[in-house]
Design goal:
Elements lengths: L4 H7 L4 H13 L3 H6 L11 H20 L18
Helix pairs in contact: 2-4
């Protein structure tokens, strides 16, 4: 279960591409509520495998766009569980 309200809503979106676009829009538009919500770590041990796949993709997008916006990247976004095997 994804604990972050914003990320959970994006996960439930009908189209994954739309969810990714919405994340980019929230970062680019400096949505402070969304950005602040990222400072509360998601408990990855509570997530289903499908949610971890989604979070792995979204974490990469968030990491990149937060860096480009000059924002601090929350450490949980770089958790080793949010990676794909090579």
């Amino acid at each position: 279960m994804i604990g972050n309200r914003y990320l959970a809503e994006l996960y439930e979106a009908v189209d994954e591409d739309t969810a990714f676009n919405q994340v980019m829009e929230m970062i680019i538009s400096n949505d402070t509520d969304f950005i602040k919500s990222l400072n509360i770590p998601v408990d990855l041990s509570e997530c289903e495998p499908e949610e971890l796949i989604f979070l792995t993709k979204i974490a990469a997008i968030l990491d990149y766009y937060l860096q480009m916006a000059g924002k601090v990247v929350p450490q949980w976004l770089r958790d080793e569980r949010l990676s794909f095997e090579l």
